[in-house]
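step: validate -> pass
step: tokenize input -> pass
step: predict -> running
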Amino acid sequence: MRFAKFNNEKGVTLVELLAALGLFAVVIALASSVIIQLVQTEDWTSGRVELTQDTNVLVSELRNTYQRMSETAETETVNLPYQESDRLELVGVVIDGGETLVSGNGLIEGVPVMENLPIQLTTEHSSGETLTIESVWTNKQSYEVSVIIDSGGSGEDIVNPNPEDYEPAGDECDYYSNIFFERSKEFGDWEKCQEIMVHGHSAWFWNNLTLNNVIFHAEKDLFIDGSTILYNESNLIAGNNVRLSGHANIHSNSRVTVGSHLVAEDVLRLDSNAVFSVGASAQFYAQLEAYSNSRITVDGYFFAEDQLTLHGNATLTIGENASFNGDVEIQSNASITITGDAIFNRPVSLQNNAGLIIQGDAHFADDIGFDWSNAEICVEGEVTYGDGVIPDIDIIENAASCD
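step: predict -> pass
step: emit ->
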């Protein structure tokens, strides 16, 4: 048998080689431009995020400093100090009426003391990117929060602390005088102190407080002007009164214990088995939310100015009378138990095995309803309704026991 023999020794011509190299160069150029653009975009995005975060921190610290200084101001204006940063510069400050203030070298001069101060701040990142934020700062001079002990309106005040009575905190684990933290503070399990103790005295955070798997314990009062965040089984303990002026998030099996009265002026949220205990009365002036097996216990009088939401086996237990001025939503096996009387001035909604137990009398001034599945309201005392209110759920009234 004879086989045909194929033999091609032609190879690649110079023209073909040059064409291939040219095509390869075009591909490389296109790929390089895409990579450069991606890197530039990432750098711009990173710079923008840094600018936004740093600006928000600066504005928060300036606002808290303004409120603190305005409390004791004896003149019509104050000069606000601030911490300068290598990557952020405050380049413009404009107040109500368009007046531009002098800023620089860590100081804003001539800020007027007003009940409500509209202000506009412009910052510049080291990359050249700028950001302008408008805000309204409230003068807290002569401002005190009244803690109502019972529905009759008697009570005592949580008075603003006097800066002259407090000393700047260091890095110690134990303190034996009233202390303040001027800048935002984060305590974590990576630091030397797993428990920070203020023996026999009070603590005051002028900005934000974050705890990550540590314990902070003030044996007397605790004041937090900024946000409060607890992670990973952290514990925040105060032997006496607590005032939370910023929003608070309690996560991941963390616990807050208040020995006496509580005032929460901003949103308070609990989730993931968090616990919040108050030994006397509690007032909540913004939204109160509890999720995922969280527990709130108030041994004294309870007052909620804004919406209350309980979800996912969360519980609220109140030892005395309670007043609710916002909507109440109880969902997904959550429950509220009130030892005394209760007044609901806004709609009450129950969903999916939710429960509301009132061992005293109850007054519902607005709608009462449920969406589905075995929700229950049980009242051991008498029930009254506002004009025209017809409940969409059967309420057990004058019950021998709601247990």
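step: describe -> Confidence is low (pLDDT under 50) at residues 141-156.
step: cleanup -> pass
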